[in-house]
Specification:
Helix 1 runs parallel beside helix 2, helix 8 packs antiparallel against helix 9 and helix 12 runs antiparallel to helix 14. 52% of the residues lie in helices and 6% in strands. It is built from 15 helices and five strands. The longest helix has 28 residues. The chain is an alpha/beta fold. The structure holds zinc ion (ZN). Zinc ion (ZN) binds next to helix 3.
Length: 385
């Protein structure tokens, strides 16, 4: 079995079967709009459908193993062209230079997507599908397929086509393409805001709704393919609106706030006094979920381990984190070691579902004891500071 690459679509079995059957029978509309919630996998489905059109297998399509499928899975099939919003090119003059610059940007973005199968769409600054790209689409549509028998143009986040309004010539070229594509050409648009498409575009495409995945399927993906612990996976899936893309974004956002929390905790631990303030301010109430509090403690431990490394003359593994916690000027090694031990115990308590407030209060007590050079015991019995 070939490396599945971008052909690895998770879920959407029913709609895939419908699309593939239509493709094999030659009944797929030539101008198609896949719409559905953001991050649900529309562009991936568009690629998958495009591959069903170019696949050379006599059996099921896309077969995933023929040359066409393998090229397509790597985003290298010459007859499957994927367009999406890009940043507005700077310092270009003339239509030709604009086209070339846009193609360079698109090639670079595709290279990034090849390297990262879980790309999140909507990169910063990717603002539009510009006139130059529409000219390229038209040129590709007029060429004969390189490998035959079909060629496909995918236009992801097609609502970004609206800037064409400023160029009647490009708008007309696109409308003509959508209305009467060359016989060997299929256009697949995707959008999570189909209402934002120009009515002239919407009226020329056949709409297909891509339904959200059931929460259990999103959780299954997170657990099996993204290595997220089951309980965590279910929790995030429940907030994902049936979208794997959104679930991955949520996880990424949590990762950031988790690191911020860990940096704050490490600073407070090193300081001793502000740790009491931290506990008093109930900063960690938001970490009530056992999983994220425990992960904050683990992240805190690795930040602190770096402080220890530097105090003993070893290099830091995370120099950015070291600077953020002000750990490059700590020299009380004995106290640092005690803090590390205390964090290990705190982590065990968190795993046993002890209240985070109590764990922080205990850490706070130890932090101050340690600051005075006295040995800390952990866990302490007092519940509050
Ligand atoms: Zn194939």
């Amino acid at each position: 079995m070939a490396e599945p690459g971008y052909l690895a679509v998770f879920g959407h079995e029913e709609i895939r079967e419908r699309l593939a059957r239509a493709a094999v029978l030659g009944r797929l509309p030539q101008s198609l709009l896949l719409h559905g919630t953001r991050g649900v996998g529309k562009q991936r489905l568009a690629l998958w459908t495009a591959t069903a059109l170019v696949c050379r297998s006599d059996g099921e399509r896309p077969c995933g193993t023929c040359r066409a499928c393998r090229l397509s899975a790597r985003l290298e099939h010459p007859d499957v062209n994927w367009f999406f919003p890009l940043p507005r090119p700077k310092r270009v003059s003339g239509a030709q230079q604009l086209r070339e610059k846009l193609e360079d940007l698109r090639a670079a973005a595709l290279a990034e997507r090849r390297a990262n199968l879980r790309y999140l769409d909507g990169e910063e600054g990717a603002t539009g599908i510009y006139v130059g790209a529409v000219h390229t689409m038209r040129r590709l549509a007029q060429k004969a397929p390189a490998m035959g028998p079909a060629k496909v143009l995918i236009i992801g986040r097609a609502e970004a086509l609206t800037p064409q309004l400023g160029s009647p010539e490009a708008a007309n070229a696109l409308l003509k393409l959508l209305e009467e594509p060359p016989a060997d050409t299929t256009l697949i648009l995707t959008s999570d805001v189909p209402g934002a498409l120009l009515p002239t575009i919407r009226s020329r495409v056949q709409s297909v709704r891509i339904a959200p995945l059931p929460d259990e399927r999103v959780a299954e993906f997170l657990a099996e393919q993204a290595g997220v612990p089951r309980r965590e996976a279910s929790r995030v899936a429940g907030r994902s609106a049936g979208s794997i893309g959104r679930a991955l974004e949520l996880l990424e956002g949590e990762q950031e706030s988790l690191r911020e929390g860990a940096i704050e905790l490490t600073r407070a631990l090193l300081d001793g006094r502000s740790l009491a303030q931290l506990a008093a301010a109930h900063r960690f109430r938001s970490f009530g979920a056992r999983g994220s509090f425990a992960r904050t403690l683990s992240e805190t431990r690795s930040l602190l381990r770096d402080v220890v490394a530097v105090a003993t003359g070893a290099p830091a593994s995370d120099p950015e984190g070291l600077t953020a916690v002000g750990g490059d000027r700590v020299d009380d090694l004995a106290r640092l070691i005690r803090l590390l031990d205390a964090l290990d115990e705190a982590r065990e308590l968190a795993d046993r579902n002890v209240n985070p407030q109590l764990i922080i209060a205990n850490l706070s007590r130890l932090g101050r004891l340690g600051a005075r050079g006295a040995p800390g015991t952990f866990p302490a019995t007092e519940a509050t500071e």
